[in-house]
Each structure stands twice: as C-alpha cells, then as structure tokens.
C-alpha cells in the first residue's frame, strides 16, 4: 500500500447514500519533492455544494500502528475529515431519526479525499499503514457536557467490512464497549 495520494485534477464534491455526508475529491499537485493540496477552501467548496461551515477547531490524531481502529462516534457538530499523510478506511453510520437511520458507508481516504460529516452521523476509521495523521475540522468546541452517541465498531447490523479484522485491530477499551445499532435510540436533531 502506498501513501502517495491520487492526483486529482479538479475539486469535485460527491453526494453519498447518507444524506448530507459528502465526499470531496481534492486536487493534489506533486513533483519529485512531494505534493501539495488545498485541504479546505471555503469559497471554492461552498460554491460546489459544501454547506456553510464555520471552523472553530482543528484536531489531529496521530496513529502509530497499522490497524488502529477508532469510533464510531456521532457528535453534535459537523466535521470535515481528511488525512495529512497515510491511508485510512473510513466508515460512517447514520444515527439520526428518519429513513436513513442505520445506513452505512465505507471508503478509503488518502490525502486526495476529504469527507464532510453532518451532525448525528457516526464516524470511525481504521489505519491501513503505520504513521497516519488523521485530521478534522469542527464547527463547535468540545465540551464535557456535549451529548455523543456511540456505535460498536464491529456491529453486525451496520455491516462495515473492515479490512483488518477485529482480532487484529488496535481498539481502545472505551470504543470496544459501544452499543450495537438495535439498542440505539435514533437522534432527534
């Protein structure tokens, strides 16, 4: 597996099967020195359909090992996800009340892909190589009073086909105890 990003020529935004969850294909320009990308460009992205998104915080999660698996967390804010380096397998499950409750989506993310996650959609990922830096912008500050909803990473009903099996995944004790989908009350936002 190579951490060299795909070389997209132009910015594109793609709708997914989860309402409001968008996949962004970012232009990546490279040469013998490496590569460059505009990771978030408000004016260009909103012109193509990204919702107005006021960034208040930028977070980085460094993952030392291949197989680090985090999530699934549905936060009460929007997130703009990308990787600064490396490749992850991203997974999302809609936990909002409505027809799309329980719908899932999964895809590989390298530096040429970003994902916009609406509030109420659970987000998780698994590193596919060592030394991956996962980054996300959010539009509200974290607070210990924030109400999260969690979903078990390996819930059978969500049918996420993680490339690295649970027996080999590196998971926190907290994440391994999240409830399964059938026990979650849909979020009313």
Query: Hey, roughly how much beta strand do the residues contain?
Result: 35-45%
Question: Based on helices, strands and strand pairing, what is the structural class?
Answer: mainly beta
Strand order in space, largest sheet: 1-2-10-7-12-5
Question: Count of DSSP E strands?
Answer: 13
Helix content: under 10%
Instruction: Classify the oligomer.
Output: single chain
Name the features.
189 residues; mainly beta; Jelly Rolls; five-stranded antiparallel β-sheet; 1 helix; 37% strand; globular
Could you characterize what this model shows?
By secondary structure, the chain is mainly beta. It has one domain (12-183): Sandwich (Jelly Rolls). It has 1 helix and 13 strands; from the N terminus they run ββββαβββββββββ. The protein has a 6-stranded antiparallel sheet, with no helix packed on it. Strands 9-8-11-6-13 form a 5-stranded antiparallel sheet, with no helix packed on it. A two-stranded antiparallel ribbon has the order 3-4. The longest helix is centred in the first third of the chain and has 6 residues, at 42-47. The model has no long low-confidence stretch (mean pLDDT 94).
In short:
With 189 residues, the protein is mainly beta.
């Amino acid at each position: 597996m190579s951490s060299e990003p795909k070389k997209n020529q132009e910015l594109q935004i793609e709708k997914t099967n989860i309402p409001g969850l968008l996949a962004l294909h970012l232009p990546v320009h490279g040469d013998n020195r490496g590569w460059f990308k505009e990771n978030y460009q408000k004016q260009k992205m909103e012109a193509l359909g990204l919702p107005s998104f006021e960034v208040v915080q930028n977070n980085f999660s460094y993952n030392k090992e291949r197989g680090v698996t985090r999530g699934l967390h549905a936060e009460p804010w929007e997130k703009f996800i990308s990787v600064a380096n490396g490749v992850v397998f991203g997974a999302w499950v809609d936990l909002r009340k409505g027809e799309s409750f329980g719908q899932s989506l999964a895809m590989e993310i390298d530096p040429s892909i970003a994902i916009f996650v609406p509030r109420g959609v659970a987000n998780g990922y698994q590193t596919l190589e060592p030394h991956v830096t996962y980054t996300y912008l959010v539009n509200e500050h974290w607070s210990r009073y924030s109400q999260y909803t969690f979903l078990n990473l390996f819930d059978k009903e969500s049918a996420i086909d993680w490339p690295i099996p649970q027996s080999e995944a590196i998971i926190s004790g907290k994440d391994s105890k999240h409830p399964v989908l059938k026990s979650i009350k849909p979020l009313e936002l």
